[in-house]
Amino acid sequence: MMKSALLLAIPALGAEVMRPAGEALINDLEHIAFLNGEKSMTWEAGINERFEGMTYSEVQGLFGTSLSHIADHADEVRTEGYAVGDVPAEFNSVTQWAGLVHPIRDQQQCGSCWAFSASEVLSDRFAIKANASSPVLSPEDLVSCDKTDMGCSGGRLSSAWKFMEDTGIVTDACFPYTAGSGTAPACATTCADKSAWKAYKAASSYAIKGVENMQKDILAHGPIQVAFSVYKSFMSYKTGVYKKKWYELIPEGGHAVKIVGWGTEAGADYWLVANSWNTSWGEDGYFKIARGIDECGMESMGPPYAGLPSE
User: Fold this and answer.
1) Among 154, 93, 167, 156, which Cα is nearest to 128's?
2) Phi/psi at 135 (5° precision)
3) 135-166 burial string, b = 16+ CB within 10 Å, else e?
4) What does the H/E/C string look like for the chain?
5) How many structural domains comprise the chain?
6) How far apart are CA 83 and CA 64, in angstroms?
């Protein structure tokens, strides 16, 4: 007997989407209560406006990062030491360099997390190096022009940094982000704001191996780019120090983000991380995730990457 699926129209970031009835919503209250049911939890699940009315299948396209273990990047790992002294127990780039670390953004319905986090790290490092505010650099330039990656279908941290080192990226005002619907525009050669085409480059780029080196790189130069495996429970993160559930075995995909600092909360060591799902998700767009145990591959599977801004 053939069953006919009832289709429902739901709003998803301004667009009407048809989906089979009965598909689980991310903001389902019963599921959130279930997630919060463990007594030993270090984090709290909750309603995130960013995913209101959306199902898990509708957000899978956000996870566009191709994960690669640090062991496969041995020839790219930074080998010189850091002149930063002892690593403090807590650190936050946003407060350390007030006004220089750029704000939370929204990749919308494009798998461009790899481009957002890479361009944001380079943006921040230009500002920190100059000790002066700097323009937001264009993730769209990476999405549309970096042909070694796949635009809204995903990319790799190492190749994004290679592009920023060899070619560079322009400002967001010059090449604004318009790939939010999931389709990237053609690579531009003139600025939308009529300014001169000026590429900002990384003078060098490198992988970072180990928790202490990740911390020292942040202390010395600013936020770094990382990537990790995303599990369903992560979409419902609201506050606290995230750890995936013990029963979650199959990830939804790879996601790239920007680590801005670290600390300890209620005895749990964490990384403080900027996401690209706007400020209506998590802790005003940020989240904390367990530090020192390679939670979800955060410390090995991007692998962690960064670079130094050019002069």
Assistant:
1) 93
2) -65, 150
3) bbbbbbbbbbbbeebbbbebbbbbbbbbbbbe
4) CCCCCCEEEEEECCEEEEEECCCCECCCHHHHHHHCCCCCCCEEECCCHHHCCCEHHHHHHHCEECCCCHHHHHHHECCCCCCCCCCCCCEEHHHHCCCCCCCCCECCCCCCHHHHHHHHHHHHHHHHHHCCCCCCECHHHHHHHCCCCCHHHCECHHHHHHHHHHCCECECCCCCCCCCCCCCCCCCCCCCCCCCCCCECEEEEEECCCHHHHHHHHHHHCCEEEEEEECHHHHHEEEEEECCCCCCCCCCEEEEEEEEEEEEECCEEEEEEECCECCCCCECCEEEEECCCCHHHCCCCCCCEEEEECC
5) 1
6) 35
Is 246 inside a domain boundary?
yes
pLDDT, mean of each 10-residue run, the chain (311 residues) = 35 42 85 93 97 95 96 96 94 98 97 98 98 97 98 98 98 98 97 97 98 98 98 98 97 98 98 98 98 98 98 87
Residue 232 lies in a domain: yes
CB 297 within 8 A of CB 67: yes
Does some domain include residue 305?
A: yes
Note whether residue 40 is domain-resident. Answer: no
Q: How far apart are CA 105 and CA 156, in angstroms?
A: 19
Give the residue numbers annotated as catalytic, written as ranges.
113, 255, 275
Return the CATH number at 189: 3.90.70.10
The residue type of 311 is E
Q: Report the pLDDT value the prediction gives residue 17, as an integer from 0 to 100.
A: 43
What's the domain range around 106? 62-309
Q: What is the pLDDT of residue 22?
A: 57
* Closest C-alpha to 280, from 108, 101, 120: 108
